Automatic annotation (TrEMBL):
It comes from the Bacteria. This is SpoIVB peptidase. Its EC number is 3.4.21.116. InterPro entries: PDZ_sf, Peptidase_S1_PA, Peptidase_S55, SpoIVB. SUPFAM superfamilies: PDZ domain-like (SSF50156), Trypsin-like serine proteases (SSF50494). Pfam families: Peptidase_S55 (PF05580).
Length: 405
């Protein structure tokens, strides 16, 4: 009898633990299914309310923001598990139906950094034959030099000139590091080539990408990801930048382990400027297009599709990489509506035989190519899988539009 009671207790404990584990699993499964944020078009339906065991309640106190054609209104939905346990809160942004003109054209990019960016430090050889490292442990990669002896500088040529004029005297550099500003004092080394700080710097960058969209009021979005410094890996802070017409000169096909790329010709002439870059963000580059940019896009405006509308299956990527604007067939294999990385909201695969023959899939320079599904612009290509160039990531277009006013 005692053994039977002990056995029953053991079974009850085991059952309780199993139910608890299943409950915890179901809790986090349901939580993952609920979007972190949701964009609702004016007059459209909001997020679907899950069934049992999840309940939802709209927080009316957040709906007080008045609607306007630019920002819309917003509200919050509070979800509970079994009607009691807090599960998640979703912010819902209500916006008017938005139309944009898809891009797909290659663009030349030139940007100037906001200050002189440090990419590293090193030793220099003085006139006496000894090695010196004036900036050792004072300056580090990713810093921005803002001033010399209190005088603002923006170009590396001005930095070199200021150091040379200062000679052997100690000078003061104004530094910005991770949003914090401070000053350092150091002394340049006297070398055969002049006075040197042993600091390697950059004040501009350039390259080729793809335009994603142009709005009705002439704002553009491109790339779908930010431009990072090639040496430090950090997002570049820019003071200004320009888009230029570019000509695709050569296409290097992608292969497993060896991503391909677009080789282009950019002519930095004022009459070839087609946009002013105002922002470099994790979601792409943004700014004001010129009339020239609008003339280059001959397609019709399409409605924007938000992430809740995206489905796995057939879609299209628009590209003018071969000199002719075309929509190429792709397959969306996974939609990550709660992705932590803004640039990796979708996983896609190129299936169009013509694009595969031309590029091998996704190659460098195609970043920003518009993704279209069911006649709506839903996102842009961002990155390629190094070991499988037929596959890559995409960003949701709403992430890009959040940077356009």
């Amino acid at each position: 009898m005692i053994c039977r009671k002990t056995y029953r207790k053991y079974l009850l404990v085991l059952l309780g633990i199993s139910l608890l584990v299943l409950g915890v699993y179901d809790y986090f499964r349901e939580r993952a299914l609920i979007p972190d944020s949701y964009t609702q078009t004016e007059g459209g339906a909001g997020p679907e309310t899950p069934g049992f065991p999840v309940t939802a309640q709209i927080q009316e106190s957040v709906t007080k923001a008045s609607y306007d054609s630019r920002n819309g209104s917003s509200y919050r939905i509070s979800y509970r598990y079994l009607g009691v346990i807090p599960l998640k809160e979703t912010n819902v942004q209500v916006t008017p139906k938005t139309t944009v003109t898809p891009g797909g054209i290659p663009i030349g990019i030139y940007m100037e950094t906001d200050g002189v960016m440090v990419i590293g430090t090193g030793k220099v050889t003085g006139r006496d034959g000894l090695n010196y490292e004036p900036a050792f442990r004072l300056v580090q990669a990713g810093d921005y030099i803002r001033s010399v002896n209190g005088v603002e500088i923006r170009e590396k040529e001005k930095l070199i000139e200021s150091v040379e004029e200062n000679g052997s005297e100690k000078l003061v550099l104004g530094i910005e590091r991770s949003g914090r500003t401070f000053e350092i004092r150091l002394q340049a080394a006297d070398t055969e080539n002049g006075y040197r700080l042993g600091i390697w710097v950059r004040d501009n960058t350039q390259g080729i990408g793809t335009l994603t969209f142009l709005t009705e009021n002439g704002k553009f979005g491109a790339l779908g990801h930010g431009i990072n410094d090639s040496d430090t890996g950090e997002l570049l802070k820019i003071s200004e930048g320009k888009l230029y017409d570019t000509t695709v000169a050569e296409i290097h096909r992608g292969e497993p382990g060896n991503p391909g790329q677009v080789a282009g010709l950019i002519r930095y002439r004022n009459n070839l400027i087609c946009g002013q870059i105002q922002e470099n963000t994790e979601a792409g580059i943004f700014g004001e297009g010129t009339e020239r940019l609008g003339d280059k896009l001959d397609g019709e405006a399409v409605e924007v599709g938000y992430k809740q509308e995206i489905t796995e299956g057939e879609a299209w990527v628009r590209s003018g990489i071969n000199g002719e604007m075309r929509d190429y067939r792709i397959a969306i294999e996974e939609v990550k509506r709660n992705a932590s990385d803004v640039n990796k909201g979708m996983i896609l695969r190129v299936t169009d035989p013509e694009l595969l023959a031309l590029t091998g899939g996704i190659i460098q320079g195609m970043s920003g190519s518009p993704i279209i599904q069911n006649g709506k612009l839903i996102g842009a290509v961002t990155h390629v899988f190094v070991n499988d160039p037929t596959k890559g990531y995409g960003i949701f277009v709403e992430e890009m539009l959040s940077h356009v006013s």
